[in-house]
Amino acid sequence: MGKFQDLMDRELRIRGLAENTRRSYIEKMRRFVRHFMRAPDQLTAEDVKQYQLFLTKDRRVTWSTFNVNVCAIRFFYRNVLRVEWNVEHIPYQKTSTRLPVVLSGGEVIALLDAATNLKHRAILMTLYSAGLRTGEAIHLRLEDIDSQRMMIRVEQGKGRRDRYVMLSRKLLETLRRYWLMSRPDPWLFPGQVPTRPITYRSVDRIFACAKAKAGIRKRVVPHSLRHSFATHLLERGVNIRVIQRLLGHRNLRSTEVYTHVAESYIRDTKSPLDDLLPDTEGVEPSEK
After folding, report:
1. Is the separation of the CB atoms in 189 and 197 below 8 Å?
2. Contacts of 116 (CB under 8 A, 6+ apart)
3. CA quadruple 16, 17, 18, 22: dihedral positive or negative?
4. Is 215 helix (H, G, I), strand (E, B) or coil?
5. What positions carry a catalytic annotation?
6. pLDDT, mean of residues 120-134
7. 80 and 41 in contact (C-beta within 8 Å)?
8. What is the rounded CA–CA span in Å between residue 260 and residue 99?
């Protein structure tokens, strides 16, 4: 990419895109250019189509990975090179709907019990008890924990929006013990370099280790604790609008997905078959 990478990074920063998005877009463009072994200003719309076919046919990437590649390529040719051909003609792939995998209450307890390191336990408790994204949890500062109002301030979450979430009493007790032991400052969960927060990768490792130790077989990741938080609130009868605010969702549709996995919504909905057929309890099966 050379100079084009610097130009792309500049345009991404000017538009205020998140760090993860910037890194992802640049990496996707690097792979695109490396595939053809030519400078990006020498590639055409037809080359883009060939690369899309390669992603679909040879690499068989998921629709989400495919569409991130499209976003990166569109951004580059629209905002960096400003080509004459119509960037909008680069097609996206049809999306699919996948329901989140949710941990049961017992599995959450097992996961937390498996995290014997106090800092690791505090991180996992924070993710679950407040429904935070990993990026929001690792960027918490000491002053974001308001024990007087029993709130956690989430500064500049996804979409660059601030919000407040509840501070669990149990979490506060754990955080106080953790603070007395480690005295973190300014980050609540510092990384190996104390002046910087813990990394996403470290949280992934912490979660994976606790998951294995707890014997959880479900395909879950740290973000699954956020899904579990929302689902468990819904099962307890919390209004979906309140859950939307706590999660920081701009659109209610993003929150409504949890109605498809909430046990109470499914279990407490009576099947019409139960009204159509008579009660067969105590009826002996007929002999052949």
Report:
1. yes
2. none
3. negative
4. coil
5. 133, 158, 223, 226, 249, 258
6. 96
7. no
8. 7
